[in-house]
Q: What sequence folds into this?
């Protein structure tokens, strides 16, 4: 018996069904004609949850948030032309931050490129500078070989996205008309169609090969055993709980304190014996401290740290600094790291700890006291500084958020000033919550959409701390917050412009600064938020903020805090100045005693 079929739809069905078999559970879809076969194939697949977005940029960032929270690849589907380009900002962030996305773009046939065909651009490896894998599937072919190749490449894309070279991958699909399944393109036998639809493939291989080099473990253990002092740096990353415990175990055995970035997950869920230091950005502003903290060895995990003081410290010391991460990434802007070790971190540390000579670690204990005392001193200075007013400003917002969000909740922090204030002011706490960030490319675009993706995948409450420019950049995504009934609380710091630029020398050029850098918006966010049907609350005091954070609402809530960017900048400078003066005075006392 011969059947009339549409080859585009049969091709798309096979791709989507295998994508579901590999483990893809969610897809973000935007409307478009050329992507019709894939859209319908995703719609027919009950194993994959569909999220629909009119705006492709929002779709890409929402998928980014989903993938961050679930730690699994999320598919994104667009039609051809500039619709595909709209995904690029989210792809760049996913590439830099190693977040797994499977980008599926529909395309016109190759022979229509460069012919003036409507909605046609060159999509051949469109994202080539920021993608981990690319495959152009070409036009669908009803052959066993073509279907096997499609499935093989799909499996390869999934494995790369999740494991082998974690990050975004791109598959481009060429389709010729007709695109709808009820309009046939071919007649084939029922037997052949069944053969293509039920085509079996080899089981997907998830292994990554060697977990680490034994030589690297031996060399590093020897260096640690010979060292009389050391530090562990943990930069921004979503360290999973067993790995956090393993790094803490290394810290406890060696006596190396952990300098924990605010976005590292190491300042939350603190235990009594954890050697965590949170205030290094303050005490490393003292040149006297830098002279005294010159460890033999520094071990760095995670991405490039947020702290400028820490980066400056790296450039002034001669300590041997070793970067350890899964893919051998060079997170070293100062360009003075001694070595980069590529390894499965958990397995590597498990073996390393076995080789550490514990009796030789006793020499660490005296040196260890010094950075811990500095951290305690700075914490006292910080709390005295933050608690001197009941009014909310940029310097104390993060402290009140941390104290009031529930256990197991998620806090997503926007780039620019908020993530820096997280670094400066986030305290250590035994409360266990997760901190997310978009520190891959550190852009302020797609922030609300990313937070919505995180909230959609999160069973607990989700909070977003963002500035007014980032909020404005992604304003229309508030529609998705309401229409999709996503439980998100947004804390909006409104300082009427680009507060981050206050930190730069251009701040002194007042007229130019305001016109080209501060770019004040002067928007009434209350009216805007209510137009989208969201709840709104303006807060001025710590009590009002605390009550708003603990408030339960059936619809997303925006909490606005109006601040003065210049006053906030001067307050940070006063804090750093006071901290350095107090530290230097304390150091004189230690030197006199000695």
A:
């Amino acid at each position: 018996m011969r059947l009339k079929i549409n080859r585009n739809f049969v091709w798309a069905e096979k791709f989507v069904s295998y994508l579901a078999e590999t483990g893809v559970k969610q897809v973000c879809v935007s409307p478009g004609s050329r992507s019709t076969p894939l859209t319908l194939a995703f719609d027919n697949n009950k194993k994959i949850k569909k999220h629909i977005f009119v705006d492709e940029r929002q779709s890409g960032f929402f998928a980014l948030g989903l993938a961050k929270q679930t730690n699994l690849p999320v598919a994104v589907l667009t039609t051809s032309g500039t619709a595909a380009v709209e995904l690029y900002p989210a792809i760049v962030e996913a590439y830099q931050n190693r977040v797994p996305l499977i980008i599926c773009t529909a395309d016109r046939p190759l022979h229509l490129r460069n012919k003036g065909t409507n909605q046609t651009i060159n999509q051949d490896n469109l994202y080539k500078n920021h993608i981990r894998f690319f495959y152009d599937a070409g036009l669908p072919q009803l052959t066993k070989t073509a279907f096997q190749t499609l499935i093989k490449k799909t499996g390869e894309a999934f494995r790369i996205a999740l494991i082998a070279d974690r990050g975004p991958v791109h598959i481009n699909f060429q389709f010729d008309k007709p695109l709808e399944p009820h309009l046939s393109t071919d007649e084939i036998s029922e037997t052949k169609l069944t053969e293509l639809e039920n085509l079996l493939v080899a089981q997907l291989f998830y292994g990554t090969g060697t977990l680490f080099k034994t030589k690297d473990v031996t060399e590093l253990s020897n260096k640690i055993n010979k060292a009389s002092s050391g530090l562990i740096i943990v930069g921004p990353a979503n360290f999973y709980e067993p790995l956090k415990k393993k790094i803490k175990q290394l810290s406890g055995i060696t006596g190396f304190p952990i300098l924990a970035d605010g976005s590292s997950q190491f300042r939350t869920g603190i235990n009594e014996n954890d050697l965590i230091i949170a205030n290094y950005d303050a005490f490393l502003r003292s040149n006297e401290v830098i002279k005294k903290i010159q460890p033999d060895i520094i071990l760095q995990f995670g991405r490039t740290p947020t702290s400028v003081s820490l980066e400056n410290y790296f450039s002034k010391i001669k300590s041997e600094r070793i970067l350890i991460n899964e893919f051998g990434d060079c997170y070293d802007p100062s360009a003075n790291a001694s070595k980069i070790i590529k390894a499965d971190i958990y397995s590597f540390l498990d073996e390393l700890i076995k080789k550490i000579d514990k009796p030789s670690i006793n020499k660490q204990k005296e040196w260890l006291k010094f950075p811990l005392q500095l951290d305690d001193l700075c914490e006292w200075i910080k709390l005295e500084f933050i608690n001197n007013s009941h009014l909310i400003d940029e310097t104390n917002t993060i402290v009140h958020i941390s104290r009031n969000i529930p256990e197991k909740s998620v806090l997503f922090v926007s780039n620019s000033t908020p993530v820096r204030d997280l670094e400066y002011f986030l305290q250590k706490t035994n409360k266990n919550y997760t901190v997310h960030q978009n520190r891959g490319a550190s852009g302020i675009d797609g922030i609300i959409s990313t937070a919505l993706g995180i909230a959609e995948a999160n069973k607990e409450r989700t909070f977003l701390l963002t500035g007014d420019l980032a909020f404005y950049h992604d304003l229309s995504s508030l529609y998705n917050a309401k229409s999709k009934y996503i439980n998100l609380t947004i804390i909006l710091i409104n300082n009427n412009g680009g507060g981050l630029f206050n930190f730069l020398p251009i701040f002194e050029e007042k007229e130019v600064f305001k016109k080209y850098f501060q770019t004040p918006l002067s928007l009434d966010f209350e009216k805007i938020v209510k137009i989208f049907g969201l709840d709104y609350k303006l807060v001025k005091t710590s009590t009002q903020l605390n009550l708003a954070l603990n408030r339960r609402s059936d619809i997303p809530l925006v909490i606005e805090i109006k601040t003065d960017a210049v006053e906030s900048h001067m307050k940070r400078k006063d804090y750093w100045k006071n901290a350095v003066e107090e530290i230097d005075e304390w150091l004189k006392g230690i030197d006199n005693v000695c």
Observations:
- The first strand starts at residue 2 and ends at 5.
- The radius of gyration is 26 Å.
- The domain at 2-197 is CATH 3.40.50.970 (Rossmann fold).
- The first helix runs from residue 7 to 22.
